[in-house]
Amino acid sequence: MVWLIIAWTVTRLALLGGILGIVPYPDGPLVINDVLLYSEWSQLLVTGRFPIGDDMWQYPPGAGVIFALTAAWGISPVVGFFVIALLADAGVLAVLAVTGVRRHAGLTAAWVWVASAIVIGPVFLARFDLLPTAMAVLALVLISRPALSGGAAALGTLLKVWPGLTLLALPRRSLVCGATGFVVTAIAVLIAVSLWATGGVSFVGEQQARGLQVESVAAWPYLVAQGLGVSVPLEFRFGAMEIDLPITIAIGTVVTGIGLLAIGALGVARLLGMLESIPGPDVVLTALLISMVTSRVLSPQYGVWLAGIAAVVLLDSRTRMRPVIGLIALSLLVTQVIYPFGYGSLLSGTRWAIGLHSVRILALVAAMVWAIAIIIAQRDPVSLRRSAQESQQGPSAGCSVMPLPPGR
């Protein structure tokens, strides 16, 4: 445990050094630009107003609370942000370490979390994504307490939407309890935020015209074409570079729709009791991969999400997702080479950058396909019938604490 803490401290100091330009890291200080933007928003948020009309604002209301806190301490909002980010980071490490020891799974998951920061690079600390990831990790380790798990999922969703996928980890008999915890927590937070500030839900309608960000999977063919000499127009919109072609909006809508259908299929399978024999975090990792591959946006900091969920997956000895995690690690490592210091080469169509980006995209897609194949292979078509029989024989687990399966 001591070596774990030392490794975490050293790696985080190295990341901060790269961000601040103290430790040599090509274009490292550039990654702080988003933190500077958070700082600007914080000045408005502390007055009780959200950045309504700002096309850069893309966060649910809970994020506004965090950004306001970075400025409410009376110190620099930039310093305040890094303090909160490090606290969330340390919190994830503590949860993974304690859970690993209690479940006799060792410290593997905690070590993976420590190492993931180096694989991802400075954006690990210089983006908001640590906060929702921390809530998602908490929701997954609290599966045996569905009401609390649902509450943690709600807090994460109000920070950045995607942690709502952690509800898919709950066994069928606990879904009502988990959903209740989710709804009650979400309503309570939304009421509190609405009493504190105006415009908390403005983000919903801010980016309906968003196209394909160049980092996304759907934009990959355009970048490959550019590498082969085809001129592809690009434009800076909504805080990112996008493919500037009218058809990309339709393509993004279709791809996103496919992703929603696939995640919906996982939800139906959960309701039918077909995923009961599969570790819950495995299902969530699959859903998250689907969400990212079919998203119109695939920013490099999204790797933080995958790192957190992958670490929780490794807490269960039954998981078959280790090869998937290996592919994810490859994708994240290549991503760091491209972003930030290879980004200009990617946009200009330089072939080495296009090649590395192709490895990034193909590894992520392969991870998604492999994860889906594992879920399909492990699904239990007779679980619904068995669940019905169990419900006739005894009371539902409801909101009581559920025993963890053997080996966890």
Q: Major beta sheet, specifics?
A: 2 strands, antiparallel
Q: What radius of gyration results from the CA coordinates?
A: 21 Å
Tell me, briefly, the overall form: globular
Low-pLDDT runs of 5+ residues are 390-397
Mean pLDDT: 89
Q: Order of strands in the sheet with the most strands?
A: 1-2
Helices and strands, in order, run as HHHHHHHHHEEHHHHHHH
Overall SS class:
mainly alpha
Percent of sequence in beta strands: under 5%
Describe it for me?
- The model is unreliable at 390-397 (pLDDT under 50).
- Helix 5 packs antiparallel against helix 12, helix 7 packs across helix 8 (175-196) and helix 11 (280-293) runs antiparallel to helix 15.
- The chain has a two-stranded antiparallel sheet.
- The chain has 408 residues and is mainly α.
- It has a domain at 211-381.
- It contains 16 helices and two strands.
- It is globular and about 55 Å long.
- It has helices at residues 2-20, 33-45, 61-72, 77-102, 108-120, 130-141, 146-160, 175-196, 220-227, 247-271, 280-293, 303-313, 322-338, 343-347, 351-378, 383-393; strands at 234-237, 240-243.
Task: Label this structure with key terms.
globular; 408 residues; 16 helices; mainly alpha; two-stranded antiparallel sheet
